[in-house]
Amino acid sequence: MQNAQQNTLRDAMRILNLTRDAITERLGVSRRALDSWLLPDHSNEHRSMPTIVERFLAEILSQAPKNLATKNIDSTSAHWAPHLLSVEQFSRESVEELFRIADIMQPVARRQKTCRVLEGAVLANLFFEASTRTRISFGAAFCRLGGSVCDTTGFTFSSMAKGESIYDTSRVVSGYADVIVVRHPEQGAVAEFAQASNIPIINGGDGPGEHPTQALLDLYTMEREFSRLNKLIDGSHIALVGDLKHGRAAHSLAKLLSLYRGLKITLLAPAGLEMPASIIDAASRNGNIVQCTDNLATGLADADVIYATRVQKERMQGEVMEGYGENFQINLRAVNSFCKPNVIVMHPLPRDSRSGANDLSTDLNQDPRLAIFRQTDNGVPIRMAIFAKLLGVDQQVAHSLRDISWVHPQKLGPNDASFDEL
Amino acid sequence: MQNAQQNTLRDAMRILNLTRDAITERLGVSRRALDSWLLPDHSNEHRSMPTIVERFLAEILSQAPKNLATKNIDSTSAHWAPHLLSVEQFSRESVEELFRIADIMQPVARRQKTCRVLEGAVLANLFFEASTRTRISFGAAFCRLGGSVCDTTGFTFSSMAKGESIYDTSRVVSGYADVIVVRHPEQGAVAEFAQASNIPIINGGDGPGEHPTQALLDLYTMEREFSRLNKLIDGSHIALVGDLKHGRAAHSLAKLLSLYRGLKITLLAPAGLEMPASIIDAASRNGNIVQCTDNLATGLADADVIYATRVQKERMQGEVMEGYGENFQINLRAVNSFCKPNVIVMHPLPRDSRSGANDLSTDLNQDPRLAIFRQTDNGVPIRMAIFAKLLGVDQQVAHSLRDISWVHPQKLGPNDASFDEL
Amino acid sequence: MQNAQQNTLRDAMRILNLTRDAITERLGVSRRALDSWLLPDHSNEHRSMPTIVERFLAEILSQAPKNLATKNIDSTSAHWAPHLLSVEQFSRESVEELFRIADIMQPVARRQKTCRVLEGAVLANLFFEASTRTRISFGAAFCRLGGSVCDTTGFTFSSMAKGESIYDTSRVVSGYADVIVVRHPEQGAVAEFAQASNIPIINGGDGPGEHPTQALLDLYTMEREFSRLNKLIDGSHIALVGDLKHGRAAHSLAKLLSLYRGLKITLLAPAGLEMPASIIDAASRNGNIVQCTDNLATGLADADVIYATRVQKERMQGEVMEGYGENFQINLRAVNSFCKPNVIVMHPLPRDSRSGANDLSTDLNQDPRLAIFRQTDNGVPIRMAIFAKLLGVDQQVAHSLRDISWVHPQKLGPNDASFDEL
C-alpha cells in the first residue's frame, strides 16, 4: 500500500503532465526534497511533504482540470461526437480529457464504488463477429455505470441474413437503444452504421480496419504505468513487436502515438510482416523518430515499453511467415537480456499460448513488468469514460459514487503485482 | 417543434377518438376556430385557444380515461390475461386500453424519462428461432421498465435437444422468471408453453402462426400517424401489399382491423400469393369492405396507408412467384403516381434491400411519408405496455417517471421527419 | 394456506434440526399436544399453541442462529471461499449455513420481495458448453440480488479458439466481473480457472466432473420437503435410480449425503450403469448403509425419496444399456405399487420425455409427490445464497428486502401442489 503523500504527488505529475524535474521547478523545491517525499514511508530517506507544498499543489490542481475541461469542451467535442469510429478523431487534448474521465471511473472499475448515472439507459452490443472478451468488457463497463445491455453474439444477425441493409439495421436498433457498439468483419461497416444513426455508435473493431477503444486503453495503460515510474509518454521509447502488418491494434496505437512529442518508436517485425508505410508516416508526423528492425537485441535496448502482438493468422492470405521463430519471442530471457530494468511489457491479447506459436511467453506471468492484465483491466474504465463522454454524463459521475456493499479480493489475480491492489 | 396547444388538441382527439368535426361539435366551437388553433404558431392564420376551451378539454379528458379504465378492467382483463398468444384475444376496448398505456410509455421509450416499476423482475426471452430485432425490442422494453433480462439466442435450447418436453421447459423457466417471451418455429408451440405456466407467456412469433405484438404495433402506428393527420382508423382505407399468403404480420393486422368500423381494405398481391380466404372473412366481419386486386395503380388510389410486406422466401414451399416483378414494387414513383399526398407507407421489416428483391424501395428513405422507422420505434412503447398490463403495473408507471440524466439526439436518424423529434 | 402457528413450529424444527419427539423433549410438552398444534386449523383435533410456548420457541430460535452463524464463520469460511468448485468443500455446518441463507432468499425467489444488495456488481456467466437452464437459473438468481449479468452462450469462446490459455481467459474476465460461473465440457477446467483468479469462481458443471450447485439444491429440496412432512434427512431412506454410472448429479448428491447420519441409501441401477465404487465409499463414510440392487420393487419399498436420473447418452462411450427398459421406469404405477404414501419423487432435470426413453414418466405430473418443479424452483434461492455468501452480503439481505410492485400468480404452474403457493 502506498502512502497518501506519494499518491498525491504522482497523480499531480500525471494530471499536469510534468516530470519530476518539471514539477520541481514549478513548485520551487529541490529535486532531492521531491525524491524524498516520493519514497515509501518505511524508507530511511523518506520525508514528509510540508503543508505549504500540499496547499500549493492543491491550488495548482484546482486550476488545472477546470482549464482543461473548458478548453476540451470547446475544442474537441466536435471531433469525436456523436460517434467513436477511429483514433483519427482524437487530438492530444481530447485523448487527455478522456483519460481524466477514465481516472474518475477507476474506483468503480476497481470495485470500490458503484455508479448509477446511466440507470434506465440501454446499450445494444452488436457483435457480427465473435469477440467475447471485447463484448463483455463493453457490457461490464455499461453495467457499472448503471445501464442495461442487450446483446447479440455470433456471426449472424437474422434480419441481415434476410437481405436487410446496414442502414435499416442501424436505424431500427437506434429506436431501441441509447448507444450501439458494433463489431463487424468488414472494414467500413461500422462507419456505415454511423451514417444511419444519430445516437452514438462505437467501433468495436471492423475487420482489418480499426479498433479504437483498444488503442485508447493501450495508451492509457502506458500513461498509468509511466506515472507509477515517474515517466511521461512524451520523450519515451516504445517498441512494437510482432506481426505489424496485420495487427490492427498496433496500427491504431501507432497513430495515437503521433499525438505525443519526442518519441522514439521502434518497429520490430519479421520480414513480410512489417508495418505498412502509411502507418509509419502517420506515427512520425509530429517529428517522432521511427526506426524499423528485425533485431530484437538492438531494437529492445533502451525501450520503455515492449508492445508485443499476436500473429493474426485469421487475417493472413497466404503470406509466408519465415523469421517468426523462437528467436522473435518476447520471453523472460529476452527481457532480462535486452531491456532496461523497469521496462513495461504489453500485449493487446489474446495471446496464443500454444507451443510453437512464439507469442508472448507465459514465463513472465509472475513478473511485475508484465502489464498485460493491468492493460486489459484498464479496458473497463476507458470504455466507461467513452460511454460517459458520448452520453454527456461524465460530469455527473464523481458526484454520484456510492460505496459498494460486497467484498472484493485485495488483488484480482494471484500473480498480480504488489502495487496493483484494488 | 410543435406548440403545446396543438399537441393538447391532437392528443385529446386521439384519446377521445374524435375527428375535427366531432370534437368541434363536442366543444361547441366552430370548425374554423378549431382549425386556427391547430395551425403552427408561425402561421398567419394561427389563433390562441381561449382559456375556457382549455379548461373544458381538460375536464372532458379527466373523465374519459377513468371511464375507459374502469370499463376495460371489467370487460377485457379476462380476454388476454395471463398470456398474450393471439390478436384474437383482443376487443376494440382492450386494444384501445393498450394503446393508452403505450402513450404513457412514450416519454420513456423516447428517452425523456426513466421508469423503474419492474425493478427486480426478470424476463426470460426464449428465442428458439433467431430474430435479433424482435428479441432486442422486447429486451429493451423490459429494461426501460427497470427489469432484468435473461435470454437465449439461436436455434437450440440445450435441454430440449436432450428430449425435454415443452411442458417441462416452460414450467422450469416459470420458476426463474416473471414473464416469458417465446419465439418458436412451430405454430402452436407458444400456446403449448402457455398451458404449462401461470406466469405471463407472450407469443413472439410462432412460425406460420401469429406475431401479435407486431400487429399491435402496426395498428398503434396507424393510430398515431392518423392522429397527426387528423384522421381516424374508423373509415380509413388500408392497402396491404405484397406476399399476403405467407405474411404473418399482414394476417394478424387484417384480423385486428376487423375491430374497426367503415374500413376499406385493399389486398394487393401477385397471383399465387393472395391472402387466405379465412383472413379475408375475418377482416370483413364487421362490415368492412375488402377488395382484392393485383393492379397497383387502382389499388393504391385513395389509400390512407400502404402496408408493404416482404416475400417470405423462408416460408415458401415451391410456390411460383410470377408477377412479383418490378411493377409490384412500392417506390417513390408508385407513391407519387398512384397515392394521395398524405399517404403513410408502412412495412413490418426487415425489408430485403438486395437488388431484384423488389421489396419496399430505399428511394423513399428521405420521404416523411415513409413511416417504417416510426413504426419500429413504436415497438418499444407497445411492448412496454404489454409487459406493464400483464404484470399489473400499468397504473404505477405515470407516477414513477423520472427525468433521464443523459443526453439524447433531437432525432434518432438523420433522415427522420421534422415532426418526429424526440 | 397454512396457519402461522404450524409454520412457526415447522420452521423451528427445521432450523434446530429436531424431530417432533426431540422438540417435544426440548420444550417440555407432550407429543400429543405438539401434534394438535401442528394440525390444520379446520381439524377438530387442532389446538392453539399457548403463548408461553411461543415465547419459549422464540427465545430458543433467537439463540440458535447466532450460535450457528458464529460457529460457521469460524469453522467453514475457509472451506469454500473464495471458490465453489466441489461438494467436497462442504461440511455439515457449511451446508446448513447455506440452507439458512437460502431460506432468507425464498421471499425474493418466490416474488414476494425484491433485493438490491448486489446493485452494481457484475456476473460473468461463461458457458463453454450449452446449458440454457443452468445459465438462466444462475443469471436470474444474480439479477434478483440486484446485479447485472454478462454471459456467453454456445460452444466457443472466441479468444480461446485463437489459442488463449484458461489462465489468461480467467484473469482477463476477473478484471471485468465480480464473480464468474463457468461451465466447461472438460473435468478440471473450472478448477484451472479458479487457479488464475482471486474473485469467486463457481463450478457450473465441468463435464464428467462435478455440478455442485445441482447437488446442493437437491439436498435443500429434500430438507424442505421433509420439513413439510415433519421428517429429517438424518435417518431417512434415499433411493437413487437410473444411470448412476454417468449421473454427475447423483454422484455429487451421494457425497453430500455422507454429511448426514443414519441414512439408508439405495442405489438402483441397471447392469452396466452402476454407481462407481469410489462414490459408494464416500456415501457410506459416516456409517450410512448403502445397498445396491436392480429390483425396483424391493429397492423403493420404504424410501422417503426417489431420486430418478436420466440416461446420460451424451456421456456414454459404447456401453451397453441392457436392462434399462420399461420395467425400470419411475411412473405412477411403480410409485403407487412400491412406495410409501408420502414418498417424494425428484429428478435433476432435464428428463427425456420421448417415448422409449423410459425416463421419469409424465403420468406423475399432477401428483403432489412429484417434487421436480419445486426442486428446480429451489435452484434460484440456493444460487442466490451461494452468490451472497461468496460476495459477503448474506447478512445484508434480510434488512434490504422491499415489497414487489408487480402482480404474480398464486402458483407458478397449473399442476403445482396446493401447498406450493407463492
UniProtKB/TrEMBL annotation, chains A, B, C:
GO terms for molecular function: amino acid binding; aspartate carbamoyltransferase activity. It comes from the Bacteria. Carbamoyl phosphate binds at residues 133-134, 183, 211, 214, 349-350. L-aspartate binds at residues 162, 248, 310. Pfam families: OTCace, OTCace_N. One of its GO terms (cellular component) is cytosol. InterPro entries: Asp/Orn_carbamoyltranf_P-bd, Asp/Orn_carbamoylTrfase, Asp/Orn_carbamoylTrfase_sf, Asp_carbamoyltransf, Asp_carbamoyltransf_Asp/Orn-bd. Residues 235-388 form the Aspartate/ornithine carbamoyltransferase Asp/Orn-binding domain. It catalyses: carbamoyl phosphate + L-aspartate = N-carbamoyl-L-aspartate + phosphate + H(+). PROSITE patterns: CARBAMOYLTRANSFERASE. Residues 83-223 form the Aspartate/ornithine carbamoyltransferase carbamoyl-P binding domain. Pathway: Pyrimidine metabolism; UMP biosynthesis via de novo pathway; (S)-dihydroorotate from bicarbonate: step 2/3. GO terms for biological process: 'de novo' pyrimidine nucleobase biosynthetic process; 'de novo' UMP biosynthetic process; amino acid metabolic process. Keywords: Pyrimidine biosynthesis, Transferase. Its EC number is 2.1.3.2. Gene3D superfamilies: Aspartate/ornithine carbamoyltransferase. Catalyzes the condensation of carbamoyl phosphate and aspartate to form carbamoyl aspartate and inorganic phosphate, the committed step in the de novo pyrimidine nucleotide biosynthesis pathway. Belongs to the aspartate/ornithine carbamoyltransferase superfamily. ATCase family. PANTHER family: ASPARTATE CARBAMOYLTRANSFERASE (PTHR45753:SF6), ORNITHINE CARBAMOYLTRANSFERASE, MITOCHONDRIAL (PTHR45753). Heterododecamer (2C3:3R2) of six catalytic PyrB chains organized as two trimers (C3), and six regulatory PyrI chains organized as three dimers (R2). This is Aspartate carbamoyltransferase. It comes from Iodobacter fluviatilis. The gene is pyrB.
